[in-house]
Amino acid sequence: MDRIRVLMRYRFTNAFSAAPQAEREKLWEEMGRITEKWTGAGVRMLSSWISAAYVDGFDHYVIWEVPDVDTVQQMNHDWDVAETGKYVDGDYHIGWAPPWDSAEA
User: Structural domains in the chain?
Assistant: First the structure.
């Protein structure tokens, strides 16, 4: 099977903005640990960007290249059990296809 591409969208909530600095730093550390775990499992970040501002913050997007469906499931689990829930709203859009060849277009 070809590697899977995962588009992840997340937004920090108003609770994040109102949280004490120590809580915000704890969240950044947790997100760093999750990312390191994913990298160790063969996940690779392909792209990231931030969209226009909303009343409660910016949408952040990341495209991950993932080796297999089991790793996608583990990523979802890692995000769900992390201490990010009250501060981050997010979702995944998952898809895969053979590599695109511009000569076939």
Answer: 4-99 (3.30.70.60)
